[in-house]
Amino acid sequence: MGQRVLVLNASYEPLQLISVRRAVILLLQEKAELIEAAEAQLRACAFSLDIPLVIRLVRYIRIPRRLKLPCSRRGVFARDRETCQYCGSQPGRAYLTMDHVVPRSQGGGTSWENVVTACRDCNHRKGGRTPDQANMILLSTPRQPQYLAFALLGELERHDVWRKYTFG
Ligand SMILES: [Zn+2]
């Protein structure tokens, strides 16, 4: 079963998605408490258990600053507040693009530090050049967001029950 369970830190900050099986183990070991469950139940020989949708860790887990978060389109747009990082316009998500600051053709990778939100016009104007080469200025220096939930954004929006945990 491909169903996933959202794990919240003790502080209610979303941490990650895990399998139902792993979530049940955490619950049985009393390392986590059940926050939201599905209507259906898991049945075993001696007991039945609500299928968890959201669990919360009993003990607070410190997030290492250097933890690498996957860089996603949704996450980059959210980090940049859906604002073009060159001209400051907010044309709406459908008109935004992900721009590689150092273009891939010049060896730039897809990372939080090298990808910014850009409107179509600015992306087109910049083309396959760096900001310097295109004589364009970035409004801010792109960094990996500190808030872990950014990395989960796309996933959290898939499930009604999870959505409300997106931004505390
Ligand atoms: Zn722009």
Automatic annotation (TrEMBL):
In the record, what terms sit under GO molecular function? endonuclease activity; nucleic acid binding; zinc ion binding
User: What InterPro entries would the database entry show?
Assistant: HNH, HNH_nuc, NA-targeting_endonuclease
Recite the UniProt keywords alphabetically. Endonuclease, Hydrolase, Nuclease
Task: Name it.
Answer: HNH endonuclease
- For the keyword Nuclease, the answer is yes
Q: Where is the HNH nuclease domain?
A: 71-124
Query: Does the keyword Hydrolase feature in the UniProt annotation?
Result: yes
Q: Which residues form the signal peptide?
A: none
Which CDD domains does this entry report, sorted A to Z?
A: HNHc
